[in-house]
Amino acid sequence: MGAWAERLTRHAGIAILAGMVAGGYGLIGLFVYSHQKHGKLVSQLKQGPFPHTMNIYAAPRILRRAEALKPQELAAELFAAGYRQHSSEVGWFLLGDDVVEIHPGPQAQASKKPVRVEFQNGRVHRIRDLITHELLRSYLLEPRLLTNYEERERRERQPVRFEEIPTVLVQAVIAAEDKNFFRHSGFDPQRILKAAYVDLRERRKEQGASTLSMQLARTLWLDRDKSWKRKVQEILLTVEIEDRLNKEEIFEHYSNEIYLGRWGPVSLYGFAAASRAFFDKDLTAITLPEAALLAGIIQRPSAYDPLRNPQSAIERRNTVLLRMRENGFISDEQYHEAVQSPLTLSKNAPPAIAAPYFVDFVVLELQRRYSQAELDTVAHRVYTTLDLNLQKAAEEAVREGFREVERRLRARGERKMPEVALVALDRATGEIRALVGGRDYRASQLNRALALRQPGSVFKPIVYTAALETAVKGGAPLMTPSTTVLDEPTTFFFDDKTYEPTNYGERFFGLLTLRQALMRSANVAAVKVAETVGYDRVVDLASRMGMHERVRPTPSLALGAYEVTPLEIAGAYSVFANQGRYVQPWAIHSIVDRNNRIRYVSVPEWRQALDDRVAFLALSMLRDVVHSGTAAGLSGRGFDAPAAAKTGTSRDGWFAGFTSSLVCAVWVGHDDNTDLRLEGAKSALPIWAEFMKRARRLPEYQEAREFVAPAGISEVAIDPTTGQAANSHCPARSREFFISGTEPPLCQSHSGTQALSSKPVERKAYSQPLPRTRERRSRTEDLGGSEYEPPAEPEIVAEPEPTDVESHPLE
């Protein structure tokens, strides 16, 4: 019998059976319905699952020549990005022993070039353009899907190929759902007739008898009504699926689309997503009991959720194991061992979904930009800036670095653990490359990367930068990195109120240069600098560097008393790393509609927030914070790349810094604003160090270059005790950077007149100590016959009480 005759016979048989159970449909109506659905089914199989959802993608990945990679690993990446080994809208690929051919489809965004990738000794050997035959150094791979939304519901899927599905899982699913799957033609007449008999006898229309193929048809294209009308539609669509796909392809689609419950606010679709959520395992690594557990969830995902209903999940798992034994898939010994195994769920699993807090941020941005009606029509594919490899590094760093924080807190007898946020930006473009908004998305969806918190001393570089701006914007007195400030107990007056900050451990350092004051994170010195330059000028600079209007011109702003977000801190620090340019951090690269038309392409917003020379002076001061200041602990953690950074301690712990390629800010604290009582150097710094070390293992971030001074910067040997140009008799010397024309005069405190500078310097300005603010008086000092009692809490109108008490001795 020919293929068409066989197909016609199958259609007729199914139609007769469907007509018997459906009653009122009629054969002619069924054939007409089948014909109408045929074209739609072909189109949807070609488009892939969930064609009407809003799909959110990561950034494309660069495939490089000589990269350590195997053909199977590249094939898995392509598959996860939507490529298939047969026709697909995204593209198709061919997999050989040591070669992969990539053929982009009409929906491909990263590259339209078909290429041949050849491998040798576990590395990419050649990348050849299949049209021009040109050898390429690199190739842009299609971005991977992060998640998708349908009807405002977030869905997590991690597509896998049939070859990646463990045999034990295939057997478990067949035993639990459809033992004749590989033998029948898409439906089981006996089961359908049995279901019809039960429904008629019990006068209901809910009896299930679906094969895997029928479940797939229902999952992808039909509503959830359990009427026999839908059952007839299901049967006809099943015939089409069986005609167009082989059994392995059907099982592959099924494995990627079946609903398996929820992980927090996210719906899990497919075995790979569920395996990651429940076991923190790649699907290929699951055991027999785990495979049976996943197969058992299919029937009733909510009732058999192993996280919420562990006992029910175990009972259902054991039922599946029994069926596997009855079908000859496992031995008696394997069965008895498996049913006795405990439920081993991962309690410290990473997010079961990719970058959940980042995706929430993207959705928030989309909702700000578009109405829901517009999103339904405009946003079919949303391409973002997220680097999945860097995101993985961020999540690993948070877990690893937080272990140290947890040990410190446990040692103090604390049970309540704080939260974490991490933001990483591309230094030059402002793209958000990685974002972690908390330790456990399933437990809490609050995105701490966007939460307002007191930044503490990570705000101080903005204060000192405002001072350095006097060299180009004017103002009295002119200040340079060698300008000196007296760090001592001091009372400040503002708005007829007094303000008395202190240093960490009540330790004061005396006369310091601005560079030394930032290195030591001296609180009193920072407030003096802010007062001298003008609080309004500090606020103006903070605004230019991307901070909002909540920052107010009062003394405590110098200590980071006004709340900002970790994302704002990262954006502000990018100014130092980017020659004074501020680029608004952004996450959405482009949006493509359902007709493959580009509806939006991001144009980064940037402005010159600082003179590039001023930015370099501030950067050089932050470099010394890493070399010998409060961030010196980085070197002891194995991080040795050129970097600039600053610690911060308020009620929370902070660490913000950058290399030549990445800017990263880390926050650690309690959601309820409870005092962490752990400095930034001991809470946020370990996480930052772990992240940056992992980032340097990735090809895109391996090269960390030293920072280069722009034109108009001079370097002079100074006496750090006076801040003036050192002569041959000065007992201490250090090199200092200046904007040309602002170098200090020769030191007069030590005998000798010969400057150590290797070149003549035009001295148009000089460094001088800041004018002293009124010193704090002793509590027992006589003030008109009564004891002076300074207020315990400074009462400054509309000003939050600063909680930063950080000022560490040099480490």
General description of the model:
The chain has an eight-stranded mixed sheet. The longest helix has 24 residues. The relative contact order is 0.09. Helix 4 packs parallel to helix 10. It has 23 helices and 30 strands. The N terminus and C terminus are likely disordered. The N and C termini lie far apart (86 Å). 36% of the residues lie in helices and 17% in strands. It is of the alpha+beta class and 811 residues long.
Mean pLDDT: 84
Helical run tally: 23
Largest sheet: 8 strands, mixed
The percent range for helix content is: 25-40%
What is the approximate shape?
elongated
Strand neighbour order, sheet with most strands: 10-11-9-8-1-12-20-21
Estimated structural class: alpha+beta
Low-confidence stretches: 1-9, 20-28, 754-811
* Secondary structure tally: strands: 30
What is the CA-based Rg, rounded? 33 Å
The N- to C-terminal Cα distance equals: 86 Å
How much of the sequence lies in strands comes to 15-25%
